[in-house]
Amino acid sequence: MDLRLTEDLELNVRINEGEYCKLKIGYGKIPMLSHVSKHSYFYENNEDVVQVEDFTEQLAQKYLLSGGINSGTHSSKLFRYVYSGKAETTKLKKVYFTFPELAAYFNNEISRNLEQNGDLSGNVTIEPMEATVLKDDQTIKVGLRQYYRLSNTSTKDGFQFTSSMTLFFEFENAITFSEIEKYLYKSKNLFTWITGFPIKVSKIEVSDDENRGTLYIPTVKDTSEHDLSYPNSFMLADRLREHFVKICESYFVKNTFEFENIWSRTIPLYNFNGVLEYETMLYTAILDKYCSHKVDQLNLDTMLDEDKYTELMGKLSDLISGDTELVKTFSKGILADLSNVKVLREALPNRSAATFKQKVKRYLNHIGNHVTEVFLSSEDLHVIKDVRDRAAHGEIEKFTTDEVSKIYWKLRMLVTYLIYKDLGVSDDDFLKVISFTFNPLALNCDTDEFKLDTKLNKAIALPVSESVFSELSSKLRVHLVLTRNQNLYEVHKEYTAKLSNYFSVKNSTDRKINHLDEYVKTLLENPKLEAKYTGNAYITHKRKNHKLHSVILVDTPKKLSSYNVL
What we know:
This protein has 566 residues and is of the alpha+beta class. The chain is 35% helix and 24% strand. The chain is built from 18 helices and 21 strands. The protein has helices at residues 102-105, 177-195, 237-254, 256-261, 276-297, 306-321, 324-331, 341-347, 356-367, 378-392, 401-422, 427-435, 440-444, 449-455, 466-473, 493-502, 516-521, 557-562; strands spanning 9-16, 19-25, 32-35, 50-54, 62-70, 76-85, 94-99, 111-114, 120-123, 129-135, 138-152, 159-171, 203-207, 212-216, 460-463, 480-485, 488-491, 530-534, 537-541, 544-548, 551-555. It has a six-stranded antiparallel beta barrel with strand order 1-2-3-6-5-4. It has a four-stranded mixed beta sheet with strand order 17-16-21-18. The chain has a three-stranded mixed beta sheet with strand order 15-19-20. Strand 4 (50-54) and strand 5 form a beta hairpin. Helix 5 packs across helix 10, helix 9 (356-367) runs antiparallel to helix 10 and helix 10 crosses helix 11. The protein is flat, with a radius of gyration of 32 Å. The two termini are 61 Å apart.
């Protein structure tokens, strides 16, 4: 019988003849071994490793319990790990984590078609992916594989196809249960960041190359359900395939400190449904810790020479202490005497990036604003800090719920961007990630759509006059035909009216042309002009822009080609 992380199990077992126990394994709980007899005590067997066997089954399956923990009573004992199988535990080199939810993540790679004659065809396989990394002088193979099966329905009136994904690790050196536990959480964390949802592992299989076994490790109980199917996950499956090798190298080898000591703190927040201000406070604390680390790591915090700093503090202290009014002015609100050198050094530390905003700005300036300018402004950092401070001090929030929600999603996007940067995803590729997903983070984060589409080379910027901009941006318009007059575009009212009339409901039965731009071509009198439909047009005037959702551009083929619409 395979051990599963998400199922409850109660077994009647014995340690040896005459010493009978109950082994309880519960989802989210540490396994407990309890003596049936109230007169048997575990202090007589104080080992951290105990082997028991199921005496109620004919095959008498054996279980190895290890990582003993004191339960607080003499009649029972807790164990961190429960193992069952034939693989030798001192020679384990392969580990397989089953992620049942990841099958939905890859659902767009599975196709099926039922013909009228009953023939069923399609593709049920998900192509595996692999990466090889070098860590601690050993080569580790990491990969994702699919397992699937066909089975009868419960009523035997048909069959069903089920699929699951397994993340596997193959090591050169033998791996211990405690190391497997670390890779379990590493794997769960990684796919939580990739999918944007908390994700579960249902089974751990191990192998010594010849035999296999299953391992139970208690994990936090999570019964939440999320739709990971295309396109709801944060990083879509095709993007993961493209970056899988790079992600494995960055995550499992290069940036382990950042992920283990800082970013791992974001994982509980994926299941946190508390007050927005407090969730904002927690994300801000993580961002603060990360930027502090990067500022120190990259030596971005400029400091004065210690002798010069000491001399400056002495002069400033003398200046303040020599004038009672200055003492009052500088000390106001600080509740400390700034004429004292020691107090002054604490108030004015020898650092250029001492505050939250300074550290974040310093690091963001270092990496550039190619991504952050799409969704974040300098003022946003000020708002984040204000919300954080009020939540930390238990004060009533001054911003409305909508305002806090808006800044919360921006903060989460910033944190996610920095996580993906540490995963080895480039700035341009991150912009592609947020552009093609329907994940709640991308949908709720207020982004500058024009900047985003421009950076992705999707935006078609059409300069217009002030009057045209005012007219088109004031109300929703569809099926517009725009023509260029010298350097400015304008609405061709005759073509637009004819287009709207031709594609009206009343003319639907007599319509012979089904494409908007094909119809406009029939109206053109100049053979040197071409008509092309686009859904990515932005009219611009000075520093303002406005997106038009259905436009037919009339221009020369050369100009239309420059917009990538021909």
